């Protein structure tokens, strides 16, 4: 399990079995609030033959121990430093939910650092219910259970939902709370039209956390966007339907 040191802190990441080779395109995957890089395991394995798949644990998440960040902008700066430490040349950046916000912020502030965006279950503005804040503060386990129910579509297997709950419960409640606060303050509705990178926007048709209208807004306002709605999937579309998610990513890359 490789790490890189950034500002004196070890940042953990995962790659596919083929590692990172300079002759292939690279995709850096950024997880959502209260998550970790393991959420991308189906992309890490399924896309590894064609591209370098690099799935990091943001500060305070997964094996990147310690504190998280207070804002999306701060997370985006960590993302840029991470890519610089790995000496990646023009990678694509993929983000889910909060991770999508991190990628959008990085594309706005550091456009020269990436070649394209893949935004999954995300939006240019991410408002969070007060029920989520209250639940995490009062009863973290109950709040995590409810979040998982909201995150997965109705046809998801019990095994996958159980795995999702285990992943949430392994994270630090205070970091998750700060993540949702950062999401709630994020608003780049007026700025995303300045992004000139090619972008793939993916959303599950049954996503109740960031409904398809969020993705439709991204597709309508990004200058070079392709929208893919995956029927029957919820917020965790890349877990629920990895085959169609991966196929969408490969098709997107093939057009560039």
Give an overview of the whole structure.
- There is one protein chain.
- This protein is an alpha/beta fold and 256 residues long.
- The protein has a single domain, classed as Rossmann fold (3-Layer(aba) Sandwich), CATH 3.40.50.
- It has 10 helices and 8 strands.
- The protein has an 8-stranded mixed beta sheet, sandwiched between helices.
- The longest helix is centred in the first third of the chain and has 14 residues, at 72-85.
Query: What is the highest CATH level, the class?
Result: Alpha Beta
Percent of residues in β-strands: 15-25%
User: Residue-averaged pLDDT, rounded?
Assistant: 95
Number of separate strands? 8
Summed up, the helix count is: 10
């Amino acid at each position: 399990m490789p790490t890189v040191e950034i500002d004196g802190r070890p940042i953990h990441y995962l790659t596919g079995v083929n590692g990172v080779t300079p002759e292939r395109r690279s995709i850096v995957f950024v997880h959502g609030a209260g998550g970790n890089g393991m959420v991308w395991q189906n992309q890490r394995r399924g896309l590894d033959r064609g591209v370098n798949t690099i799935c990091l644990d943001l500060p305070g998440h997964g094996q990147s121990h310690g504190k998280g960040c207070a804002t999306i902008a701060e997370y985006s700066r960590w993302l840029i430093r991470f890519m610089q430490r790995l000496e990646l040349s023009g990678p694509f950046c993929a983000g889910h939910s909060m991770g999508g916000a991190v990628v959008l912020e990085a594309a706005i502030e550091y456009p020269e650092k990436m070649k394209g965006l893949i935004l999954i279950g995300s939006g240019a503005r991410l408002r969070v219910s007060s029920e989520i804040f209250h639940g995490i503060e009062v009863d973290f386990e109950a709040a995590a259970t409810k979040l998982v129910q909201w995150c997965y579509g109705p046809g998801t297997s019990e095994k996958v939902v159980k795995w999702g709950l285990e992943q949430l419960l392994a994270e630090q409640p205070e970091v998750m709370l700060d993540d949702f606060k950062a999401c709630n303050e994020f608003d780049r509705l007026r700025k995303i039209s300045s992004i000139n990178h090619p972008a793939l926007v993916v959303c599950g048709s049954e996503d109740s956390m960031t409904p398809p209208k969020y993705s439709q807004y991204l597709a309508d306002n990004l200058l070079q966007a392709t929208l893919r709605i995956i029927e029957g999937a919820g917020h965790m579309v890349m877990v629920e339907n990895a085959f169609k998610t991966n196929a969408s990513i490969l098709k997107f890359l093939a057009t560039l």
